[in-house]
Design brief:
With 353 residues, the protein is α/β, with parallel strands linked by helices. The protein has twelve helices and 13 strands.
């Protein structure tokens, strides 16, 4: 008998792509997609069960399918359709609790893969230059998706202690980008003008959605060739990009603002429904975040196909040309940066983080 894989969050593009990919693996016999709403995209030959993971009914679904592998992708920072931030938090936290409770009772579940985020490290001025999987945040995220991710991982660790017979893999993804990315940062880069924090040019890391699908697929299988597909792993493409480099490659003008003004601008665009410009995203765009991926390569045995720069380049191609020619914008940004340095002295040391 082949594997039976249950996947949550399949109404989103990323979840749908993973379902279509995993069912092509020869040792997978059946794939069951679960979400509170029916997906608008096709799921190939997978079965779809409309169920809200915030409800206890997910336990019945798990029992009836006899799934031995659960891939929990319904942990996200953006609402689906007309959903609210409240519904997102409930799905992230309460939904995870219900799902883990069902997995704990299931005698068939042998592997659990959880989609998490490098947001758990936060973004603070005194953060280390590079965060490893054991790095403790200088200050725990106080709200938003970052706090959700911290709570989700806490519940997952509790589950792992109660069910040591289940192989648990937590994947902390850097900012996910690609042609169909549905993330707060993708929405930010879609703004006609990018508000930035004056005096800061944060380092950013990205992971391509194709690599997200592949590492999820690898993690959902039993270990092979000496790899250990359990534990917590940072997942990101090689290299980093400065926010100023991103704006140039997009052809988007930036508006450097003092931090209070950026906070006000974030509230405005959030109110207008343009993007979820949350406080955690403002901190990311101030201090940045870079993670170490040694464990991903050496322990998990995964090497991303796309670097951070290549991921962003593909994202830009999917968005079409920017508002300004990249060459002209690059010159303008350089001139503004030069004037800022003359007028305000050296940039704060936090800008490197």
């Amino acid at each position: 008998m082949g594997k039976v894989v249950l996947v949550t969050g399949v109404a989103r593009q990323l979840g749908g792509r993973f379902v279509r990919r995993i069912q092509r693996d020869p040792d997978v016999d059946r794939v069951v997609g679960v979400d509170a709403v029916a997906p608008e995209h096709h799921l190939g030959g997978a079965d779809f069960v409309q169920a809200d993971i915030r409800q206890s009914a997910i336990g019945r679904v798990l029992a009836e399918t006899g799934a031995d592998t659960v891939v929990h992708m319904d942990v996200t920072g953006t609402p689906l359709g007309s959903g609210s931030r409240t519904s997102v938090k409930e799905t992230n936290v309460i939904g995870t609790m219900q799902l883990l409770g069902a997995c704990q009772k299931s005698p068939t579940v042998k592997r659990l893969v959880v989609k998490s985020s490098t947001n758990v490290y936060g973004s603070a001025p005194r953060d280390p230059a590079v965060c490893t999987e054991t790095t403790a945040p200088k200050s725990l995220p106080s709200g938003g998706f970052a706090k959700d991710a911290v709570e989700v991982e806490g519940y997952v660790r509790g589950f792992a202690r109660r069910r040591p017979d289940v192989a648990v893999c937590v994947l902390r993804f850097a900012n996910i980008l690609g042609r169909s990315a549905e993330t707060p940062l993708a929405s930010y880069f879609g703004l006609p003008v990018l508000p930035t924090v004056f005096g800061y040019d944060p380092r950013l890391q990205f992971v391509h959605e194709d690599d997200v699908i592949e590492v999820l697929r690898i993690s959902s299988h039993d270990p092979r060739r000496g790899t250990l597909n359990s534990g917590t792993f940072n997942v990101a493409g090689d290299g980093v990009l400065l926010l100023s480099q991103c704006s140039r490659r997009l052809g988007r003008p930036t508006v450097p603002l003092l931090l209070p003004a950026v906070t006000w601008a974030g509230t405005l665009v959030r109110t207008l429904g343009m993007t979820d410009f949350s406080p955690e995203q403002i901190r990311l765009l101030t201090h940045g975040r870079v993670v170490d991926t040694t464990q991903m390569r050496e322990t998990l045995g995964f090497r991303p196909k796309y670097t951070t720069a290549e991921t962003f380049a593909d994202f830009v191609r999917g968005r079409g040309p920017g508002l300004l020619p990249p060459e002209a914008l690059a010159g303008a940004v350089d001139r503004i940066a030069e004037l800022s340095l003359r007028g305000s002295g050296p940039l704060p040391t936090q800008s490197a983080n």
